[in-house]
Amino acid sequence: MNQVYNAIFSDIIHNEFDFDEYLTEKALMEKYNVSRAPVREALMQLRSDHFIVCIPRHGYRIRRPDQQELRDIVNFRAVLECSFLEQYYYSITPEHIQSLREICRQYADKQDKNFINYWKLNRDFHAKLFSCYGNDFALHTLLESMDRQVIYFVEIMKNYYLAADLHFAMLDYIEKGDIKTAMTLLRADIEKIPTNDALQRVKQNHPINAEVPTYSLC
């Protein structure tokens, strides 16, 4: 089932399907050359993950992004993640920083800079950072909100480019104890709308490492 799920998910984010197109079990079985069972399971999981909706007697359609829902998710994440960083930054140990940097390097080292790899590592980064605070309930809520955000993230990342590595820079500021700037960078990363002030600080105080591609935000 995972292979079929990943294949359909990949085709969704690479615009292989139109929003108005019906996804049927039969068509997907033929497209991916698999039996009905894994297709049905994949569709059920995609529906559970809020990527598609069921249209009775027709099949499934990709969920149309609702901009209000996106704003709600982004605002929720910004408040949640930034407030926890401000209050519990002292719980982030050097070992945590090292693990977080490794997640960033994994993406920087990958030869295939595709969306799926980016999203998984981006999710891992935020989950790892938030796990430092020791609040499992809040972490679970954060991950649920991020999973709902994927369909919107696809649209954002189509033309998204940022000439700064926000995650690496954020970790540097956490190590320096400059939590205010770290929070600014964290909010910019969540909102995908970097502020001029945040970018200026990065350019002045965090020169881009030549070994890390400038489009790597993981």
From TrEMBL:
Chain segments annotated as transmembrane = none
| Keyword Membrane (UniProt) | no
The record places domain HTH gntR-type at: 1-65
Q: Which UniProt keyword terms apply here?
A: DNA-binding, Transcription, Transcription regulation
What's an example of a GO molecular-function annotation for this chain?
DNA binding
Q: Which organism is it from?
A: Enterocloster citroniae
The name on file for this protein is DNA-binding GntR family transcriptional regulator
Q: Does the keyword Transcription apply?
A: yes
